[in-house]
Design goal:
Distance between the termini: 64 Å
Largest sheet: none
Oligomer: single chain
Radius of gyration: 27 Å
Number of strands: 0
Order of helices and strands: HHHHH
Length: 125
Amino acid sequence: MLNQYIPVLMHLLVVVGFATMTLLMSVWFGRRSTSKQDIKDTAYECGMIPIGENQPRFSVKFYIVAMLFVLFDIEVVFLYPWAVVFRDFLSADQILIFWSILGFVGILFVAYLYALKKRALNWVG
């Protein structure tokens, strides 16, 4: 029984060894910054000297709207497989299928109303 795990253990050993050697080689052979190389290691911005922050700050509302979009988008994607096999399911149990999808859409609608009430979808203010 233990002989079946030998290939898995060998694979795990190779993976850990590769990761360790890659990290060690980057430390051993990587460039080290000296005072002369500091200017060479800065970001190249089309010939312009980079001034200020490297990335603009986004409002938290942007991330909330993005998370809600991803959440509702993924939930809607779950409706597609149900719609594809809907006709096959009708022969099995019509009431269960109808109420299960109605409950799913109902939960989505309640979540949408909650997001509207909390003003999570407002971009301004």
